């Protein structure tokens, strides 16, 4: 049975293979999907993105169409080049999305449905996204309320996991997760229950600032979060402009302590923090000892946690 992080990695692999590409063919063994494809053809649409939400995988197409598949039981997505032999029998195929020479094949998915943004919003089964940080009506206050709500519902949730949880706030990626926690001086492994209102305010505010700066920067992966030192502000190397992300073992730009790295959460995403600027505050259920970064070198196929 696929775990959350398996579904997450599947979505990432599908996104990498398909996003930005035009669908050239769509085949399905499911009558409901076939009839929608007849009425509003999938071929010709662009794959916008693929995301994981809980046990669900969502493939967003241009023109307001979303293919939602449930990944529990033996449901799985494979990616093949055209002509490559499938690893599962054709009888288990439920849907095939072809984009040029790439094919994404869903096998055994117990549920597969097309949705529009609106019908997905009404669908009670698929987890909802939190407020979109880049939406026009999003303010720091919106973010504080979202974080506060999560603190109340899941006091044990770790801050780093919460920042990345798209059902709390939608938009932050793994880089900003670490940078936002650093900006607020919050150790990302602290439980939400230990956070103060002030810390939530700074995290919401910097989330908004970083996301907007990233959009203005235009390149998508351009990251403008470090402005404390003129020497590196204008660096062409994005890594030089980050406070902690990707800097394990290097000196903190603020205090000189060594930046730590550790995989966090069900999806095992790397988290970076400064043990001095982001002190450990245990909740009653947590170890009084601060979390320690593991400087494990990940090689080959074990690089699952890398970004
Ligand atoms: Zn520091």
Structural class by helix and strand composition = alpha+beta
Give the distance, in angstroms, between the N- and C-terminal Cα atoms.
24 Å
Bound chemical compounds: zinc ion
Q: Gyration radius, to the nearest Å?
A: 21 Å
The pLDDT mean sits at 85
Choose one word for the global shape. Answer: elongated
| Stretches with pLDDT under 50, minimum 5 residues | 218-236, 296-307
Please indicate the percent range of residues in DSSP E strands (runs of 2 or more): 15-25%
Assembly status? single chain
Record the strand order, biggest sheet: 1-6-7-5
Work out the helix count: 8
Helix share, percent: 25-40%
Report the major sheet.
Answer: 4 strands, antiparallel
Order of helices and strands: HEHEEEEEEEHHHHHHEE
Strands, count:
10
List keywords for this structure.
single chain, 307 residues, alpha+beta, 4-stranded antiparallel β-sheet, 8 helices, elongated, disordered C terminus, binds zinc ion
Would you summarize the structure shown here?
With 307 residues, this protein is of the alpha+beta class.
Structure description:
- With 307 residues, the chain is of the alpha+beta class.
- It is built from eight helices and ten strands.
- It has helices at 4-18, 31-39, 117-122, 140-153, 159-164, 174-183, 197-217, 230-233; strands spanning 25-28, 47-53, 56-61, 65-70, 76-81, 93-99, 102-107, 112-115, 260-264, 269-273.
- The strands form three sheets. Strands 1-6-7-5 form a four-stranded antiparallel sheet.
- Helix 4 (140-153) crosses helix 7 (197-217) and helix 6 (174-183) crosses helix 7.
- The chain starts with a helix and ends in a 34-residue tail after the last strand.
- 36% of the residues are buried.
- The model is unreliable at 218-236 and 296-307 (pLDDT under 50).
- The protein binds zinc ion.
- Zinc ion is lined by residues 252, 254-255, 257, 274, 276-277.
């Amino acid at each position: 049975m696929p775990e959350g992080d398996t579904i997450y990695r599947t979505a990432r692999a599908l996104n990498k293979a398909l996003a930005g590409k035009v669908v050239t063919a769509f085949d399905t063994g499911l009558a409901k999907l076939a009839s929608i494809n007849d009425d509003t053809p999938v071929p010709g649409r662009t794959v916008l993105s693929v995301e994981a939400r809980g046990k669900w995988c969502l493939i967003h197409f241009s023109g307001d169409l979303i293919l939602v598949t449930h990944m529990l039981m033996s449901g799985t997505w494979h990616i093949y080049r055209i002509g490559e032999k499938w690893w599962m029998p054709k009888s288990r195929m439920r849907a095939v999305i072809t984009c040029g020479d790439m094919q994404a094949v869903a096998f055994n998915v117990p549920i597969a449905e097309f949705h529009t943004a609106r019908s997905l919003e009404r669908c009670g089964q698929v987890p909802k996204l939190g407020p979109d940080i880049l939406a026009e009506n999003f303010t720091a206050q919106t973010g504080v309320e979202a974080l506060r709500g999560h603190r109340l519902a899941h006091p044990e949730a770790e801050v780093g996991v919460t920042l990345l949880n798209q059902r709390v706030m939608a938009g932050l990626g793994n880089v900003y997760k670490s940078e936002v926690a650093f900006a607020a001086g919050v150790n990302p492994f602290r439980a939400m229950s230990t956070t103060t209102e002030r810390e939530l305010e700074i995290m919401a505010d910097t989330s908004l600032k970083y996301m907007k700066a990233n959009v203005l920067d235009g390149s998508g992966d351009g990251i403008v979060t470090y402005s404390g030192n003129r020497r590196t502000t204008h660096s062409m190397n994005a890594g030089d402009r980050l406070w902690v992300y990707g800097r394990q073992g290097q000196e903190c730009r603020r205090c000189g302590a060594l930046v730590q790295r550790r995989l966090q959460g069900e999806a095992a995403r790397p988290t970076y923090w400064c043990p001095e600027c982001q002190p450990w505050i245990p909740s009653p259920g947590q170890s009084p000892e601060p979390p320690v970064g593991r400087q494990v070198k990940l090689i080959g196929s074990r690089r699952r946690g890398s970004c």
